[in-house]
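Entry 14. Structure prediction run on the chain below.
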Amino acid sequence: MTQAKKKPKEKAAVKAKRKRTRLSPEVRRKQILEAALAEFSAMGFAATSISRIAGRVGISKANVYVHFSSKDQIFETLLQSLSSVGKSQGSWSRIQEARDVSEFIDNLIDVTYEALTPEALAIMRLLISEGHRIPDVLAKWHEANLQGRAERQAAIDEQVAAGRMKANPLTEHFEFAMTPVVYAAVAKLTFGDAAAEEVERIKDTHRKLLRQLL
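Output returned:
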């Protein structure tokens, strides 16, 4: 007896299956983090399960555990991504390679405000609403954030030491100079796209103030 011919739909399914390629660990991790952020934002940390995250990605729970040991670790990784916002090698080089203080300020402002992406804002909202549920993870994130502040302060101290910036209370505690970014983030979190013009005004005023004070 000859084998029955496969129907066109069956042939297409078999062909698609053969062409399916294995995703790299980096791509899969990114998918898991994006799915987790969506689930955390919609359901809250407590109500989100590894099963829900896996289902959103379209993989098994076991596959999620290949990349992350727990839901807490996924949450911690999201917070770490928030700490590294604006600190990629390209962004940091763009700031540090400025030829003068004016360009340094321009690059710093542009990189910082560009980092207020929808993903970053979603993580901030999650941090505010759910951070108290996992104090150990939050404490680790806070420690990493303090390290980031120290690195930014070191960059300013270098500018002062080189004589490119004048020493003043603002350069001694530079995080204070970046508080308008928090105001802009809150405006975006609260009003969404309706705050776009207000955020641009904040950004422009922030740039002008730093030029006057530094």
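The two ends are 87 Å apart (CA to CA).
Filed with the rest of this week's runs.
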